[in-house]
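Supplementary Text 2. Reproducibility record for the structural model of the 491-residue chain.

All settings were left at their defaults, and a single model was retained for analysis rather than an ensemble. We include the record here because the model underlies the residue-level annotations in Supplementary Table 4.
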Amino acid sequence: MEINTSENFLAKEDISYNNDGHNSSIKSTLIMIIMGFVVTIVIGFEIFSYTSIKYYYESALTDSMKNQANINQFQFSNYMNRYDLSEIIIGDKNLFYRQNETQVQILDNSGKVLFDSLASDYVGRKLESTDVIAAIEGKQAFFRTERQDTGERVVSLSYPLLSSDQHIGIIRLTSSREKVFERVRADMFWYILFGLIVIGSALALAFFAASRFIRPINELIKVSEKFAQGDYMVKAKIEGNNEISELAYTLNSLSENIIKREDMKNEFISSVSHELRTPLTSIKGWAITLQAPEMQKNEDMMNQGLKIIEDEGDRLSMMVEDLLDFSRLFSSNFKYDKEVLNIVDLVKQVYTQLKPRTESSNIDFVFTSVYKEIPVFADKRRVKEVFINIIDNAIKFSHEEGRIEILVDQDDDDVSISVIDNGEGIKEDEIAFVVSKFYKGSSSKSHTGLGLSISEEIVKAHGGRLVIKSKYTVGTTVSVVIPRYEDEKDK
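Retained model, structure tokens:
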């Protein structure tokens, strides 16, 4: 059997960490997430600001044009309605629109331009833009376009002229939008500057926060590297009360457990080496002794030596079997061969098998059960091994003329098999460790320290539990509690 060492399961020669690479990746990811969120918010804010400012200034411009058109309509309907449009234009009676700061065009009901304040070549031409068409139908409308000669962006408002509720023409006002965009650009400069300041501040804050977040992780990586090198005495610094501090606490607990297990492993190796050496020394010594010529004629000494060799061989076999069981049961590939069996008969078989040992030690060995049959779903061989281990321990730690009782009982769901002895018991400070792997305790009668650990593993694999109660110098009760088998349950 191969015993795992710290070098085996940590492979410390092959483990290395690139702190800068790993941490830079985490830091970059954090910064990218934060900055992605901030930049998205800033860009959204800038778009909203641009749209809002542009809408505000354009609304101010169009509202001003509407007000001016309303004033022109009011002046026309009250002071000029007795004149024809052509008479107003020819007679220079167009004071009602001359106060406009924008381009003014007077159109007839067909959309033909009768007058243009800029004296453009549109005079005499018929306009067919959407705003003019809407005004012909008696509606006011805006039309945005660019001047073909200068590329200037303009907005036009066509407004119907009414006289005594009669539609007699159209007044069309055209204003430049360039001032609107100039004001938008001027205002957006400050908004963009503000956005850049926010992004810069967020970047600095993100870098600081990421560095602060990564720092304790760096410390934990250093501690992990020490672990990989076999230094389990190093401790992680615990700060705050968060997930990282919990990880630090877990690493510290891990190091303590590894140290404990290393001590137990070393003690186990030392103990097993000693236990193996003793029977081997005895076997070798008697084998050499029995080869002596004078021993060939001493039949009694020959039989005694062969008996000792046989006993020591059995002892070696038992120790090796414990080690093999330990290796098999704690392997992820191990499978139990479960079947429905009568646990009462199984325990009675073990009782019958071990009764001769108790008789030779004058131990009162009693089997008690009011039940003849209690079905369980279990691996017969492994469960039998559990009871042999437990009863063997009870015999081993019982005094001559002591008492051991096997009690079988059940409740609604479980069956309980208790082995009760009045032997030397277990010390209070040791009872919590007796099922730990390799733990032997202070008793000189312990062997590999694997019997109860193997038994507990088997019981757990059957959905049960191993309960140990003991009082030093008074006795021990070990109970195996496993589920009863019921036909309606899906096994």
